[in-house]
Design a protein that fits this description.
This protein is of the alpha/beta class. Helix content is about 55%, strand content about 10%.
Length: about 450
């Protein structure tokens, strides 16, 4: 995500930081490179022109030219202007209690509407809402069945109108059904088209008029670049949208759509799809995305992922076990499974400030997790609790049962023992306050 743009910005800023003092010519040269980088990232040309103009005007001010660290000042200006271009501080999407919240999803065919409907349903079901998925695509073969399958995967019902073929009637009846069944979130998946046409727009206008949704979202495929921006403009002008959900952002190394949509349509990006799994949905925060682009990491998103995945009591228990040297293979596999729920290991490491660019060429094979997990799960409960009993015979059995070699099993046990020794040294030498949940000892004066 934004890998290409981030690398270009890194080279530009590295060049700027190499100057002890910066002249107006240095800034204009850097802004020419920034302009090319943004255009190559498929950012809308008008957005690029306005962005570069604003940054140049601020950068050639006396504050930068007389600064002790002019390169850092320019980076800060670019950082702030990128956030402003993408919409400034995010407006949290919130549902209203004691009513039926209707969310209408629009978009071209293949943009990911059906998958996004499932992602939204899963996200808000976890928060205690009762979603209902509504299939209004009666044209594409198996579209209704596809939404039903997605609903089953997340444990959410899909409205079944039977032989009813009119999308407007399906949507109206679904809202009435939700009222009877005490469902407080109705997510309507509408039909897509290969291109924008008058018939499609008229149908969407009629559905919107019939159900009066609280939120009308355009679902746009980030990988289509400028087409995503153009479709957002067209849907907004002809139907009216409240925001954009940008899908497949993890597969778009350029990111031009994310940088252009708000500036062109004046409608905010609300959610971004960052993976194929039904849990891979994030609220859009311009400041966090800009930090990723500029290689500054994204600690807040990393913390939020950890808070959703990890339980504080569980973390305290784990720290206690490490301190007492009772950390076992079972604890290890439990923690590994929790980390896997947070997403790709490379993505997680990339959110740590200072590491994102350093690890970009490193290979993080998430299948290694599966291999390690298989070896540990091939152990008996007794072996997981007490690795000291793992003799040659037991190791051969574990290797055979997990589809690994004995050498792999030996390496795992060796690394586990080394990790325990390192943790022992860390905690024994850490002193008061060391560890994620320990209270700091007050200083005596």
């Amino acid at each position: 995500m934004f890998e290409s743009l981030g690398e270009k910005f890194e080279r530009i800023f590295k060049n700027l930081r190499g100057h002890g003092a910066i002249s107006e010519r240095n800034i204009r040269d850097a802004m020419r490179d920034v302009k090319l980088a943004l255009l190559e990232a498929d950012v809308h040309f008008r957005v690029v022109k306005e962005f570069v103009t604003r940054v140049t005007e601020k950068a050639i001010g006396s504050e930068v030219l007389t600064s002790i660290t002019p390169g850092q000042q320019v980076i800060k200006i670019v950082h702030d202007e990128l956030i402003n271009t993408m919409g400034g501080p995010g407006q949290p999407f919130s549902l209203q209690p004691s009513t039926i919240n209707v969310v209408l999803l629009l978009g071209l065919q293949g943009s990911g509407k059906t998958t996004l409907a499932g992602k939204l349903a899963k996200r808000y079901m976890k928060q205690g809402w009762k979603p209902l998925l509504v299939p209004c695509d009666v044209y594409r073969p198996a579209a209704i069945h596809q939404l039903r399958v997605v609903g089953k995967q997340v444990g959410v019902p899909s409205y079944d109108q039977g032989k009813q073929k009119k999308p407007v009637a399906i949507a109206k009846n679904a809202v009435e059904f939700a009222r009877k069944e005490a469902r407080d979130l109705v997510i309507i998946d509408t039909a897509g088209r290969l291109h924008i046409n008058e018939v499609l727009m008229d149908e969407l206008v009629e559905i919107k008029k019939a159900v009066r949704p609280q939120f009308t979202f355009l679902v746009a495929d980030a990988m289509t670049g400028q087409d995503a921006v153009n479709s957002a403009s067209a849907f907004n002008e002809q139907v009216g949208i409240d925001g954009v959900c940008l899908t497949k952002l993890d597969g778009d190394a350029r990111g031009g759509a994310a940088l252009s949509i708000k500036a062109v349509t004046q409608k905010p990006i609300v959610f971004i799809g960052v993976g194929e799994k039904l849990g891979d949905l994030e609220e859009f925060h311009a400041d966090r995305l800009v930090s990723r682009i500029l290689g500054m990491g994204d600690v807040l998103t990393l913390v939020e992922k950890a808070q959703v995945t990890f339980d504080e009591k569980q973390a305290r228990d784990m720290e206690r076990k490490i301190r007492k040297q009772t950390f076992t293979f079972q604890d290890f596999v439990d923690q590994m499974q929790q980390v896997r729920k947070m997403g790709s290991l490379k993505d997680l490491v990339g959110m740590i400030p200072g590491l994102g660019r350093q690890v970009k060429d490193m290979q993080f094979d998430d299948r290694e997790f599966a291999s390690i997990e298989a070896m540990i799960l091939s152990m008996t409960p007794e072996e997981r609790e007490d690795p000291e009993i793992l003799n040659g015979t037991r190791r051969r059995r574990i290797a055979q049962g997990s589809g690994n070699s004995v050498q792999n099993v030996n390496q795992l046990i060796k690394q586990f023992n080394e990790a325990k020794r390192m943790m022992k040294q860390m905690f024994s030498g850490g002193g008061p306050g060391f560890g994620p949940f320990r209270k700091k000892k007050p200083k005596h004066r």
